[in-house]
Amino acid sequence: MKVLQVIESLTRGGAERLVVELAREYARLGHESKVVCLSSPGPWARRLDAEGLYAGCLGKRRGFDPSIIGKVNGLVDELASDVVNTHLFTSNLWTRLAALRRRDWALVVTLHNVDSWRRPHHRAIDCALARVPDHYVAVGDEVERYWRGHGLPGARMTLIRNAVAWNGQKCPRPLANGNALIRACGRLEPQKGFDVLVEAAAILAGRTKEFSLEILGGGPERDRLERLIETRGLKDRVRLVGERDGREFIAAADILVLPSRREGLPLVLLEALHAARPVVASRLPSLVPVVADGREALLVEPDSPMALARALERLMSDPIAARSMAAQGRILAGREFSIERAASSYIDVFTSVRRRCAK
User: Fold this and answer.
1) Contacts by residues 148-156 (CB-CB < 8 Å, ≥ 24 positions apart)
2) What is the pLDDT of residues 203-216, one digit of tens each?
3) What domain range is 199 assigned to?
4) What's the domain count of the chain?
5) What is the DSSP string of 68-108?
């Protein structure tokens, strides 16, 4: 089967990471796998190109660029793709428009987020194009509920939870010494709740707990977070470390924190589980079906620095229980969130859709 994945950029991000790892797994399974980005190649493009999986960048201009419709159709025709799988709003929009013409390829749209940011014109566009794709995939339970509730045809939607490739590398034992290294990573934007984490760190510091906090990522909230760190007197304990390899960063953490206000199913969580890291995360509708509170992670109310500080203190004060919870998390990740399992499920969807389209 010839599978083309379409995404706006191949810069660092969870959806981008999933696209790359699915592309590799499709190729390993014997399919002809390619990835194209609309506007921003980024570091993942170089890696895919070296592996023969990169179909190039279509050079989309910022904002409204109708020329991209012809470019998408031209590339699909050139590659003779059987299935086109798009990811995230911009790619989903333009590829659906490209698919309005008569075609002999199947279109599958992957929904990654609860897009509550959408304005009325975004919702109108989604409604108008809702029946263009042959099938939808939701990456998490709350994502599936959200989009079904917004009118997408449930009979043409499949839940395939996010996954990551994990090579079984051994990671250092968490909380093995007195000074806990707490880490978090993601784009520095309000929905990620890093301000809540800094406030929780201020509470912990007031209790003289031995810890340091590092937050990986870039984004529009960086300046505000730096001011908050300085205001709370935390410059000796809390660092914003910029952007680097997230996998190694997570694997070396004593505790991984996800203080988000909303999420789909973040790959950061799945990587932490695979790496057997103790996890504290917001109790979000998207995460409650995934991890059991107290067994594979500690879940706390979003936007509550005190609840977050208490959960961190609980893990730091009982390393044996924290490591036991992390071990359960690794078992769960290996069973439910492997890239092999996800890719196989996608291929099943692609096969079913192609069969349906051929009738």
Assistant:
1) 150/123, 150/126, 151/127
2) 999 987 789 999 99
3) 180-336
4) 2
5) HHHHHHHHHHHHT-SEEEEESHHHHHHHHHHTTS--SSEEE
